[in-house]
Amino acid sequence: MRAWQVERRKRTRHLIELGGLVVKAGIVELTNDDRAIVYGALLWIAAKLQSDEGENARNLWTAKGRQAFDGERREEQMGQRT
Known about the structure:
By secondary structure, the chain is mainly α. The chain has helices at about 5-25, 25-30, 35-50, 55-80. It is extended. The mean pLDDT is about 95.
């Protein structure tokens, strides 16, 4: 396989994973799959991260994300035990 094909597959996988997070967070349902709302929200996030409040937002959102991932991991482990 050529190097450009490997890179393209990596990029595709990365984009799919990011899209999966949008679905996992419930954004698709909450916005009724309105791409303008999703894009606008992402632009708002980017602006927030570039602002004076960027570090605080990053810390808050990182904590929330880790908490959600940890909760899902615990649920999966509980499901495997039963």
